[in-house]
Amino acid sequence: MNNKYILLLTFVIIYSINSFSQSKKLIEADSYYNEFNYSEALKAYKKAFKKNESVYYISTRIADCYSRLGDSYQSISWYEKATALPSADEDVFLRLSLEYRKVKEYEKSDHILEKYQKRKGLSIDDQSIEEGNSIDYLMSDSKSYEVFHLNINTPYSDFGPMIYQDQLIFSSNMPVEDAINRSDVRNKKGFYKLYSAKRNSLAAFSKVKPFDKAFRTKYNDGPISFNSGATVSFITQNSEKEDGASHMHIYMKRKEEGEWPKKSIPIPIVQKGYSFMHASFSNEGDKVYFASDMPGGYGGTDIYVSHYHNGFLSPPINLGPNVNTPANELFPFCNSEGVLFFASEGHYGLGGLDIFYAYPDSEMFGKAKNMGYPINTSSDDFNLVIINGKNSGYFCSNRDGGKGDDDIYAFTHNKEFKNYKLSGKVIAAADRRPVLDAEVMVYTNDKLVKTIKTTLEGEFFFYVDSIDDCKVVVKHKNYEEETYTIDSSSLEDSFIIYLIR
What we know:
It contains eight helices and 28 strands. It is of the alpha+beta class.
């Protein structure tokens, strides 16, 4: 997925930079880097490094360049140099840990991740090394999936699958027959354009052809998302250069008399100088999920949600630490059950970007879960969408054995992405009034799996993998603690927990 690191993912890593007088070569290197031209930036940074200036900053930049260019071994070498310097901050340890995962050096990755967690003051369980998050565990459910290569993949980079009517729409940088043969100066490859192919079956398609020309610009187009009625679309495209840098923005179109208009409207929540991308409608069409590197997140690119109504978007809400990490989260998608699927390099995984899912609860989403092998590998696996409601769909990967830089894969799963949904309400026994902000702790097999708060109406809901040995403990400073044991009757309706003063 290296092309999209350059073209579509504005990965942001912030390092502590001491005040220094920049040389001309370092200024030139930063300029290349900010333009995502990592090959030229790498040459310039190496020349600046020989002058022994800003050693930590340049070391990390060189490592970043190698990471973007897909050379993890060189990236590891330079990150190791950076971590050995007195000025090393905690984020470089996280980057080093992630690179070791890409080359399947999992023990080294875990060891360095522990160093990162200690420096950040995190509990070991906050990030990775806990039951259910081990390499053996992530490989254990592989027989429940079947993965199929698509007949429409090309030797180039194909990604961004989305169902539109009876077609699969996707983005590709395959050569375009055009009066002007344009290419991106940053990687010398073609710009991404949208294509369509009629679906004959899950993994077989008719001939590929360009998608509606109303979505074609001079630069990169895609991925795209449609509402359920296919009357509104959100597409990721290049914005005009801002302060010498290129960013991705989300643009909206609404059908007019059954046709897509040529003019696109940038969504009003974008902020100048930052990227907004990978918009995806909820199944009901009332929410739009997207990724952005705007300020105020947890690091890198985070996933946000905005409520959508009749062309208007509410201010974005960050999905919080159960989804977002100090690294990068991208490509959100919600299925018909409200389960969120997304790509992350920050949650514990097999390497590169892995695909995760998170069940909704009354606060936002529960803890992210890795989909495991063979959906995930040590390569970049990303951009999963669900079709037919529940247990089949498409995703993208640059894993070995593919046809191009990135390929689109179909999959089926013999389990539904649905756990047991439990709804409850906390009531004061004395006056039957709802209790706000009661702490609801959910246990399975005597292990705390999540903690949520009740709403103004005293309500809460959550998902669990199993109702066997499941219980809820409710605490509030003004009431006695109460325990409720879950059984099959709890699934039939919302259960009530009474609190006594």
